[in-house]
Structures
1.
Amino acid sequence: MGSTPSRIRPPAAEPQLISLPAAWRRLFLRPAPTPDAAGVLGFLLELTAPDGQAAAELDVAPVLLTALGNSRYARPLPLDAKRLGQGGLSLPQQRLASSLLGLPQVPRKGRSYARLAGALGDLLLNEMLDSAPCLFGGVAGLHMQRGTGKPLRWHWQLEADGRQRLLPTLHPGQRLLRIGALWVLDAEHANLCPFEGEADAAALLDAPPLPPESSAALATLLPGTRWAGRIPAPQQFAAVARAELSPKPVLTLHALTRHARLAAGAPPPAYARLSFEYGGERLPGRGGEGLVRRVREGRLVEIARKRADELAAMERLEAAGLTPAVDTEGLPWDLADTLPEDAWMFPGAGHTGALEVNTPARWLALRARLEAEGMQFDYAPSFPFEVLDGAPQWYGVATPSADQQQFALEVGLELDGRRINLLPAVAQALAERQISLSPSAHESEDAVWYAPLDARRRIPVRLSALRALLAPLAEYLDRPRAQLLLPRVQAGRLAELRNALPAERPLEAPAELADFTQRLLRTAAAASDAPPAALRAELRSYQREGLRWLNALAEAGLGGVLADDMGLGKTVQLLAHLLTLKAQGKLPAPALLVVPTSLIPNWEQESARFAPDLRLLTLHGAQRSEHFARIAQHDVVLTSYALLPRDVAALRREPFALAVLDEAQQVKNPRTRARRALQELAPPRVLALTGTPLENHLGELWAQLDLTVPGLLGDEHGFRRHYRQPIEKQGDAEAQARLNQRIAPFILRRTKAQVATELPPKTEITRNVRLEGRQRELYEGLRLTLTEELRQVIVQRGIEHSGIIVLDALLKLRQVCCDPRLVKLEAARGVHESAKLELLMEMLPALVDEGRSVLLFSQFTSMLALIARELERLRIPYLLLTGDTRDRATPVRRFQAGEVPLFLLSLKAGGVGLNLTAADTVIHYDPWWNPAAEAQAVDRAHRIGQDKPVFVYRLVAAGTVEERIEALKQRKAALVEAVLDGGGSRERLSFDQDDLDLLLAPCASE
């Protein structure tokens, strides 16, 4: 391979030949070599660079192994030539495959490789590229082609001391290979080709660097050799210039490899290396020649080192306490192995001998002393950063956005007139756990964090001061971000930040942000608490306070949570607020009122009772879509949590002035469909009404406030980390105080105990519930059947003699209202829907969580059994007393002692004769139509000895016989007494056909 070597003529001038190094003389005088006659070929070929290191890999195994019946990358089998001929290989392929058989393989990384070398290697590589597919990059790699030969061009690489090395000239993406001759691999185009030229051209690579004093001789010699025109003349220098310079000692800090940390964290243990700078040329502190040559601006300069000055600098290091690490005795072996011979160890570093640069006072004092003695400091790339001295000033700036809904916040350091916002770096450091917002168990009082000023410089900042500044922003620093943008409702945190900043550097913020909380308090104090003229109710003082609070939120354009205890009149406060907005012209669009399905009738009745001037539209039932076009004509649009997700597309077409969520704990789960639908509607304000702002954990409080005051408590993850876990698991009083401060302006909570003086001795509340689905169908079907039967009986007997049959019919209808499972009829089998039971199961957990003691009465013991089953499912403890209870004293004693919060009682067993003054709440699941019997049951709790207000709840199925008999209570006393005990009375009925028609009228339309 290669051209025929030409005769080499001897050099023209002997002095020039003598001035060349021996290696260069031999290279230019010896004849070109002849090819060798030996070489090997393996399955996987590893091609090497001129330095002998692996540079490329070719895979010729796939075709050969398939033909030989072997699997990929297996070791070669001892196949004979006859079997090779039967494998379907061509003669060139058989020749190559024969070279594989029986040859020793060199294992590396689990594979067997053979390296091509020498002139025979060049021939084999040429033949292989022509006859067997070669893959570059593995079996899935590129198919390598043999390219045409390329002319070999050379260039001189100048080294720092003036020596020059001869190297082939390559284009970008090319790789130099050496087999016998030189080859070039073009990885981008997947081709491999030899350089054109003499076979011994590769030997030029073995030549040592050319000294500067020989460059003139070689330049003169080149034109008369076979390399003429292919090797350029080397650069020639004039006479060497002597530079008289004084050394400047430089101490470079290096990080111990095993202790290296991230750049933004604390500096690692360090050691130093000493060097000396002569006019910009840095020379090692130990060893090296006394005369050093360097190329400067095309001239060759010789530097004479001043050893006496260098020794004096070393003595100053030792005087400062540093010691050379020549003797590594006593150091851990892994540490000793990492230290170079010229390392210097810092004082006071313990057994490691390395400076712990997390005590800035000691480190900065040492550096100041050495700098005063002329020592220059530098930081190696292995060392994370340079530590600065100085006294930077803290600053804080809040800038509102153009829409005034957000503000950008900066907190950082001011050094030499330049401000550096540290919040992005702090967030990054927190995410990487380099610092924490709570001190560790063994953290010193003066512990620091090295705040980044730029890519290389850091300045120590006391962690105690940093944490005081970060505390108001903790939940917003959970993830790295280029800029900290906070919602307007977070402006209250600026007061905390202002207190944490130094007094001489006040927070820079416009007035509307700086005194946000104070302005909100002033607005609340100035807001009106006067009940609107259209309100048909007299508000108690605490209810007027709630109205003022709601009006103040409206003036500030904010939402909030009205979290009064159950029974304190949240409904009437909200209705008064809506009437106030309407009267002031601040209700330009309807208010969207979202409630549990069971409370829709209650809201309809309360609105009609207290605020008849509010135009209310109920979106409920199968025909509700017919009313969508009339939404804008109303003041309040009433819907349910169940229907909101279904109707969100239609509701999105209409603007709403605000949204109100009753029993807002219904959306305490951030992933509920109703919550997502409300967020999709994006009303400008959201109010929440709930007696239980949290039931099980603080996450429920976050869920409600995140809907009503978005951004107030950050995202869910940050709230859990910075508030919920510290408060719930660690009892963190500071976190609790911060949370209370955050939510105070946006949540109004009054308990019954707080407003007891405002309440009468007994408060009576009726909760209406509407029958739905199969329960409603059962009621209507049974009503029609019973009505027809009663009409036939009355025709035959007359109404005066049909009392028992009438009462039995009314009993069945009342049982359907309670729970269809009470009705012992075939038509009721399989109907398990109970709107009233569902409402009860919404009330009881809230009442129990409030610490209430509850008496629950029903005249049906089978209903009590169904309620007990649900309580067990919810894991709510209860006591039960019915006519079958033998030991009545024990459950009464346990309830009175406060051991169990809920007591289930039947009318006959618990309606009389018991003293249950521990109770403050009475629930009538199925109201009793005899006022005297009902009063007796209530008197179990509301009697002498009771020191708490008592609340009485009646659960009534709206639009049914229950509600109609309730309406007849006062004016039809005889009828009420007749219905006593579900038909147990045998007294003559004193009502007419019109009364019966009213009782058995169809279930009220939706």
2.
Amino acid sequence: MADPISGAAIGALFSALLTEVINKASKPARFRTLHEHLKITLTEIEPRVDEMSRMVGNRPEEAIRKLIDYLTNGKELVLKCSTIQFWNVYQIYVCVGKLKRLDKALRRFFQEEVPMKLLSTNASLMNRVDELKEKVDRLLAIHGAVGFPGSCGVPGLPEVIVGFDHRLAELKYRLLKDDTKVLVISAPGGCGKTTLAKMLCHDKDIKDVFGQNILYLIVSRQSSLKSIALNLFRHYGKNDCVFQTEEDAKNQIENLMREMGPDNILLVLDDVWSESESIVQQLRFQIPGYKIMVTSRFLLNSLGSTYELSLLNHEDARTLFCHSAFSPNAIPDGVPDDDVNKMVEFCKGFPLAHTAVGASLCRQPLFKWKITLKKLSEGQSILQSDKRLLHCLKTSIDALDEFPISKNCFLDLGAFPEDKHIADTLLMDMWAELYNDGKDVDNASEYLLKLSSRNLVNLVPIRKYAVELQGYENEHYYVTQHDVLRELAIHISSQEPISERKQLFMEIHGNEFPKWWTQKTEQPINARILSISTDETFSSSWNEYDLNAPNVEVLILNIRSKHYSLPQFIRKMSQLKVLVVTGYGTCPTQLDDISCLGSSSSLRCIRFEHICFLSSVHIIFKLRKIKKLTFVTCKIGDVIPHITLGQKRLDRSAFSAIQVLRKACNTLKVCATKRHYTLPNLTDLEFDRCYDLKNLPAGLGNIAQLQNLSITNCHELDALPEELGSLSNLKTLSIHSCTKLQELPESTGSLQNLQLLDISDCLSINVLPQQIGELSSLRVLQMSGCQGLHELPESVSKLLQLKDVICDEETSYLWKNVGADVGNVKITVVEKDILGSFMKIIR
């Protein structure tokens, strides 16, 4: 016979859970927001639990035991969540899932096992549980939207959606039918397929069926089973998976899906091209509760059920158009209602056309409307094909005629592969060289904002700081573009003959070069920006294919093969200023030969992304005009650390002696011996997510003009060179998320021009240099997430120019202990949310 259960036992367990939640909610835990909601929920249900405790004698013991299990497991779960570190995104994800399942179990308990009398009193509790579930869902949706590497979370929804409610209901009905295994949403580009798919994923009924197992991937024309498998496994924190073949990738995906059972699974594949139809076929696994939803501009009838998305009716189309064209939505005086109706008719129900064309006419005078209507009236029907849509959307680009540089910037975006995130800093550097003669990089952001305000690009935040730092760029973006708009850019750029185009974009499949290239005409290419994309089967041999392009200023190489050599015709590009080399394969592309860069006398900016380097990389560090070097997700190994820049690297004691001698010479006004510098024009050096970078190049201090040094997410970096202090012109030093770095060199105090220092999320730093007080120009110090730091050196009181300190709550107490000496410093305490994706001010 089971032991008797007392009401007092239930009350004690409930009190213990409530106490833990209150304690954790009052501390800077990673689940602070969730704990606050749990505290409110538990406080509200406390009287109901007391009532159940008094009714123990009238309740089946089994139900009471279930309630005790929920309370016991809830306490253990809260305790476990409080121990998870903010950087452990996977464990946070797992813990959130468990909390959601606990919510679901509690709701089922109160719905099915509590008497109706109590159930009616618990209506407010159920509302709180639903609200909590929705908030967690929104957090997870944000996690997917910010674009974490490998994330398969569902992106967020547009601000305004018109005319999709009945479509959503029909689509939901068809997806949930038992015999539906694969459902395809098909329509021409710009009809809203992706929006409808996102709506479905965010729908409450769909979430109740599939829960956390909704996986969302964009499938481009170049996608493979390997790339899909890589994203899926990264989504679950498995970053070290290797897939030998396409068949191996398929098998491992199937095993992953089976491990997720017995829960239902929804795999959403967005923007699938006809070339990728076979990939979807291979992802059709015979797993109970497993479904696939595909969006495509093609009719992929062989996959299964197809939902053909219709265009907007006139009423919905007019509503959407007016929202984009007028602010507020009321039609202003002077714009005839008939003109609005005609414009809506010309857009022919394409949601993207209404949004883009409406934005191009927003706040424009009446004559602009007349001119646009006249141009549209001369075109053919927009309903017949995607080309008609491109013709319609061209009006949004014609609106940029008065801003010719912004129009060229829009056309430049065709140089990048579809469905890829482009760093805004890359575009700024590129456009500064093309249109500002290498000056005013910050002003180039105006071109991007102009395109964004007209809905021609989307901006996705990369990292958002908690405060506005006056005089500093505190927010960066990935730039994305709808594939139809990318096609529009390519379409417009290709209207001129090959030799006369300013933007020349080429895609090479296998080794099939364009005919105009293989004919080897003597006529030179006059393009200023050249983009060459090669696929996985490209042989990486350029020997037989010369190219005469003397006016190219920006060269963008998009690579998918495992090995690659830079084309030798780069030697002839005497005007080349910007080089962007990006690997898009599952593994970093091995760059076998870059010797041609040795003769590139005009190069100012080089960006390598997802590249594996060999010993030839030393050539880069001999280019005298280089202003900016960027390495992103590159496999560095021992190549860069073994490069010696200028003089021999000094140990700490030798460096300190030279510093003392140099100061003495300055005091006595004695002329020191002329020093040899390397990279004399380099102002920016960046390493981001270079996971095997352990050391920086020897002689780093010889880069005399360096102003910005950024080393972020390099988790193997364990030391900085002592000669860092020789960078006398350094203004910003960002060492963000270098988790093995234990200290800054003492010479850091010699950086007299340093204005911003970022050591946030450097978990292992346990001490700051005693000489940090000598940073006489330091204005901003970012140090949130420095968990190993337990005290500040007394010299921080000498930082007279320091205005802002951004830190977490633990670190803020260290500054309070310093006392009134830093009374003019603004201490901003920030907290990362449970997914570590954004930061917010909490006081």
3.
Amino acid sequence: MLQSKQFNKKTRQGRVQKQVREVYLRDDIYCGAKSCKACDSSSACLASSIILVVDTNVVLNQIDLLENPAIDDIVVLTVVLDEVKNKNLSVYNRIRALCSNSFRKFFVFANEFHKDTYVKAVGGESPNDRNDRAIRVATRWYQSHLGGETRVLLLTNDRENKRKAIEDGISAETIESYVKSMGQPDLLDLLVQPASEDVTMDDVEDLRPSKRKTLYTEHKPMSEITSGLLRGIYHQGKLRVNRYNPFEAYVGSESIGDEIIIYGRGNMNRAFDGDIVAVELLPQDQWHEEKSLSIADEEDEEEDDVHLVPNSADDAPRTTDLGNGSAGDTNSVSSRPTGRVVGVIKRNWHSYCGSLEPMTKPAGSGSVAHALFVSKDRRIPKIRIQTRQLENLLDKRIIVAVDSWDRQSRYPSGHYVRIIGEIGDRDTESEVVLIENDINSRPFSAQVLACLPPLPWLVSSEDLANPIRQDLRHLRVCSVDPPGCKDIDDALHCMALPNGNFEVGVHIADVTNFVHPGTPLDDEASQRGTSVYLVERRIDMLPKPLTEDICSLRADVERLAFSVIWEMTPHAEIISTRYTKSVIKSCAALSYIEAQARMDDSRLVDPLTTDLRNMNTLAKIMRQRRIERGALTLASAEVKFQIDTETHDPLDIGMYQIREANQMVEEFMLAANVSVAEQILKHFPPCSLLRRHPTPTREMLEPLLRTAAAVGLNLDVSSSKALADSLDQAVGDDPYFNKLIRILATRCMTQAVYFCSGDLSPPEFHHYGLASPLYTHFTSPIRRYADVIVHRLLAASLGICKLPPVFQDRSQLTNVADNLNYRHRNAQMASRASVELHTLIYFRKRPTDTEARIVKIRSNGFIVFVPKYGIEGPVYLSTRGEKGGGEWFADEQQQKIRKMDNSLSYSVLQTVCILMEVVEPQPNRPKLQLSLI
């Protein structure tokens, strides 16, 4: 039976269009109940005597409860799924995951396609009312369809929907009422707490507005915000709370072309980090007065407008506490606009990891207790929760979600979600790192694993006979990777040609031969975006059979590859480039140390060692040419841990050593990425996935310039070439001086990002750090989804396959690029947090004296960098509470701090001796403290 379905759709230009679709209605859609006599129950999953039908608001607001294993036998209607998808994509993905989980009893019923449950919109009826009516009709159908053997219950917190359901003879309850009837009081902790304005006085006696002081100004209504944005009164942007001072935030505003600084929780007006907000500029005479910046202390947690530490670089380096340099860290802060939040346009609330504020354990159990939750992330305010299991939670890391923030409450309200584990346990704290950075570490689903070829996998005769694939097994190919690397996705070969030139090949694992567009495996890889490398483990983007076996270019096994092959002169000039799918057989899987040892040992003259030396010679020329073009040679404080294989605790810690072998591999990977970028852009100008590195502004480089000037250096930052030359000339008597300057330069850079070529103009494609007009990622498809996309583009440019549908939809491709940037950044932050965690574990029982370098001066101390361990943190000179730094005077322009009597002074880049030890100034928040010896 055919029915016409009408609905309104808003276009990207903001116009509303009426859409009409034909709906084919069926009578053979199963109900999913095992007890049903009328339907085929072979694939039914609903087995209880009570079946629950949930409405849209229950799914949107109570998803944490629905994810608890105690809640099962749920019918999710397609009308509910569609509405949830339109309102909250994150919750939609979570409910879809529940519906596809074979261990849970969630059944999707296509009520919009069943002839007995489809409902037409009635004139004057809102879409919301029509959807509520459709939910009631489907629930009533279930009741009559299943008869009296199975109870069907509609769960809704909408009073009107519940009233109409009961009038229609439908069993309906609120979610809270149903949970109470289950006899599991702990489940009540998972319920979302309503905002106080929505709570009746019967529910909570002590929330009468008349008895409570208003702490925050009321948010403006959206109509007023929209009007204010159009008239330039308000400015829209994402709020970013300073990672090292929770009472200071920034809103990047395109409308004024600058960052607006928000000081104090009052001016933040209940906005969270990541919220899209509307900001009103304060009068210019209220803009932040110029004052010496100081280092915020852990104990300042509850003080508003304490130490001000402007730090707009969200991609801040790893520190033990606060105060690293950034784009916003300039001396002339008085000229920067200051504002206040007048409304929240889009919330960024999610689940947070932390612990409850210590308190005496309650004598009884089961009664409702109020507690304050303290997030591990200092940017998040404390959250007030109610719990019936306080005694069990006090020594645990837990997850809490935010429900509301009333303007009469100092803290937001939320609810308990689940326990992670014991506070201080390494596995628990590692899990916190993953959750805080939204890293999916769940095992791959059966649907994903079903996409893999069976093991053992071997190159087949069909692969060898395939005309698109060249047999390169005769080449002397080898890989060079970190020690113990199992997911080997790149290998090299270098062969001398009769004409005196060299054939050099970069061979990359042919991942797209196994990961096909639109499959569960591809969808999962697309969502994960990248593999995540923690100190003690790796969270894979693809299942291990692919990453460590089928795709990994291991030694002495035949593997499928995608190859970029150049003919190069002895001066590393590229004569020709060709691209081909291939079959290779690596003759050696070397570590960087092994490759370096071979090249350095003059007694070795075997063919493989000769190949390595030839590649290294070419790479040095290529590297020098890149530097002459303006590519930056930056440095980072990369740390390497030696981990106990049994306990997984760190045994040793030190800076990661870069060898010539590392640089050799890097050079050829960069060259392959550039060659592939040129090839795909030539064939697909509107839909290529590229990578750009925006040029840093003068303001962003200001901290570097000020530090350099303080030690007598004049850095030219007019171009990447000028900066590169200046950094090369920045040498002193101290052998570590130049590396330190390069590390400081790295801190001033913006993040490189993926983008769709159709979204920007060619001049914006430029990669500043590499001084390259074009760049992409092709060389690591095992661990980066961006490279998988680029492999598909390259294959299509060679006529090997057609472009998948995603490349026809630029907005969808832009969304993919945005997700890749989000996942890439989160992976970086998780890696840093893992290093911080293991640094704390290492030094917990090892107080250590060591040398450090001062990298930034503050009014109450300075920030130091510890070269031996790659650690950065604050050293306090004046005690907490001393006004103006006590007996110390700081000259931040000259980057010096001295005692008032001139008996002692410190300057930037000076070497000092410090004691490193783990302390816990606040319960459950250990930190590495650095003190002057």
